[in-house]
Amino acid sequence: SSDLTQDPAVSVALGQTVRITCQGDSLRSYFASWYQQKPGQAPIFIIYGEDNRPSGIPDRFSASTSGNIASLTITGAQAEDEADYYCNSRGRGGNHVVFGGGTRLTVL
Amino acid sequence: EVQLVESGGSLIQPGESLRLSCAVSGFSVSDYHMSWVRQAPGKGLEWVSVMYSGRVTYYADSVQGRFIISRDNVRGTLYLQMNNLRDDDTAVYYCARTHCSGGSCYLNYFDYWGQGTLVTVSS
């Protein structure tokens, strides 16, 4: 299956660490990338590959992969990190893209 | 500066056709793989289609046979021709550029996105 599964919602206390996971068979073959999306805005590219951040993305965002689970970790969550987070990977022989259902992060 | 600007979204009836455009600047549309990604109201992201830099195309099963992706290198524009539209095609449609580094481009790494254009299919 090329489906990616994410927890629908996660919460974290301000300044604490939170991990958002993404599970799927395709992650055994392809690295995930991660996106942050706030209401009414386009997604923002925040993590790709093994653990790479595009320019301008704070280093409190990091990623890892183990088997068929990719994880996004926010170390010291800030109020502005409250958003929806999506993972994606490749599917169907590598020429399709599949997204996870998204995780809504609440910062308490 | 890299920019992607979508246009063409509107209210349209089921069964009709619509063409979306994505005008790019700051890079050449022919040098990158370019995708369309959509998001139904209140729902998650769904990949729709890709055109590789070499013009090979792929589609999600949900749009295969109804949508056609194309590009105009001179105009620097990506298109999505949507035919036989259905209610469940209602969504914000984003164009997105594939990230390239070290001479390789990675299909599922979308480094730049447009602001999206809303397509509403309803009678």
Question: Can you walk me through this structure?
Answer:
The complex is a heterodimer of chains A (108) and B (123). With 108 residues, chain A is mainly β. Chain A has strands at residues 5-6, 9-12, 18-23, 33-37, 44-48, 61-66, 69-74, 83-91, 96-99, 103-107. In chain A, strands 2, 4, 5, 8, 9 and 10 form a 6-stranded mixed sheet that branches. In chain A, strands 1-3-7-6 form a 4-stranded antiparallel sheet, with no helix packed on it. Chain B is built from no helices and 11 strands. Chain B has strands at residues 3-7, 11-12, 18-25, 34-39, 45-51, 57-59, 67-72, 77-82, 91-101, 104-113, 117-121. In chain B, 41% of the residues are buried. The chains are: A mainly beta (108), B mainly beta (123).
Fraction of residues in H or I helices of chain B? under 10%
How many strands of chain A?
10
Largest sheet report of chain A = 6 strands, mixed
Largest sheet of chain B: 7 strands, mixed
Name the features.
heterodimer; A: 108 residues; mainly beta; six-stranded mixed beta sheet; four-stranded antiparallel beta sheet; 10 strands; 48% strand; B: 123 residues; seven-stranded mixed beta sheet; 0% helix
SSE inventory with pairings:
The complex is a heterodimer of chains A (108) and B (123).
Chain A: E1 5-6, E2 9-12, E3 18-23, E4 33-37, E5 44-48, E6 61-66, E7 69-74, E8 83-91, E9 96-99, E10 103-107
Parallel strand pairs in A: 2-10
Antiparallel strand pairs in A: 1-3, 3-7, 4-5, 4-8, 6-7, 8-9, 8-10
Chain B: E1 3-7, E2 11-12, E3 18-25, E4 34-39, E5 45-51, E6 57-59, E7 67-72, E8 77-82, E9 91-101, E10 104-113, E11 117-121
Parallel strand pairs in B: 2-11
Antiparallel strand pairs in B: 1-3, 3-8, 4-5, 4-9, 5-6, 7-8, 9-10, 9-11
